[in-house]
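Note to self: keep these together.
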Amino acid sequence: MLVSAYSDTNWAGCLDDRKSTGGFAVFLGANLVFWTARKQATVSRSSTAEAEYKAIANATAEIMWVQTLL
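Structure:
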């Protein structure tokens, strides 16, 4: 069965502390098995790419965990 994930971020979306909001969804085949959206722990200073990399890293860790369960 295919495990896939989609992620997205809103770079510096919080006007109070300039932290990005990131989220991802993990699918097993066509079924959603996990999703999350939260403010990232650190401020991404350089660009939107840094925030995206953080979200991708979180999604990758979650995919690896789901594959370990299978």
